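Hi Prof. W.,

I finally got the Orotidine 5'-phosphate decarboxylase prediction working! I wasn't sure whether to trim anything, so I left the full sequence exactly as given:
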Amino acid sequence: MIQPAPHQEPFGARLRRAMDTRGPLCVGIDPHPGLLADWGLGDDVEGLERFTFTVVEALAGQVAVLKPQSAFYERFGSRGVAVLERAVTESRAAGALVLTDAKRGDIGSTMSAYADAYLDPASPLFSDALTVSPYLGFGSLRPAVDRAHAGGCGLFVLALTSNPEGAEVQHAVREDGRSVAATVLARIAEENADAEPLGSVGAVVGATLGGTLHGAGVDLAVNGPLLAPGIGAQGATAADLPRVFGAATRNVLPSISRGVLRHGPSGKLLREAARTEAEALAEVLARAGSAPGADV
Ligand SMILES: O=C(O)c1cc(=O)[nH]c(=O)n1[C@@H]1O[C@H](COP(=O)(O)O)[C@@H](O)[C@H]1O
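And this is what came out:
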């Protein structure tokens, strides 16, 4: 499998194709200590490595996106980060898009260094996309946004997170009457203006939010992918997506970590679990895509 060269095709286009051909599923690689124990592995670098490459070997040739969670690698220091580097490289080589989940956000000059770390093809952690936090102000993300656009990479900007504590910041109402999250989504939409078939700046919107989303006055028509964590261990299901995302459902990239990983360490069972989830999600998204008003 040839790796997509940087400066080639925008991330949004690559993601749309991957979702169409491999199914609309992102599997998170989250080596929790509890999962390592369930898999009969030690809570050490050897266990981390075995867990990670079992998932990569089972799923990188099958699923659209793999999302390694950086925290679980950082907790082992440089040896853990070395495992993450190999996971990113090997997953991309096997054809999966890699979204590194590090939720970076800082003042612009520091953000530029994070862009070097994750979005520069010369970096050992070079990924197709990165999760970022806009809560130092959306404009502070500018170096990463520019780098992503220039290199054919993507960003997923936290908008409405799946955890219950998120609302106290994200639903806060500004002087202009708009919520903070609505403002973040509007900025994302500006970045994706005119992109086809899909912009490269995505939003993170929890699949767990249910009805609370509609009270937040948000417009999910950002012309970019909507990463939807929260399915499985956090209680949301594929069937919840149309209720949460409405007309934007066809642009949702559902993300599941523990809900798939708990089927390991058997590679066969991991593959089956991912396939079953992807098929169910594809059906939900296709149905939503053919509903009236689905063209967002
Ligand atoms: O950016 C994320 O992926 C993310 C955003 C969010 O709002 N909620 C959320 O759970 N996540 C991540 O998604 C994963 C959820 O894992 P599971 O609950 O095991 O599926 C974790 O790695 C979280 O850090």
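The chain has a mean pLDDT of 94. Does that look reasonable to you?

Thanks,
D.
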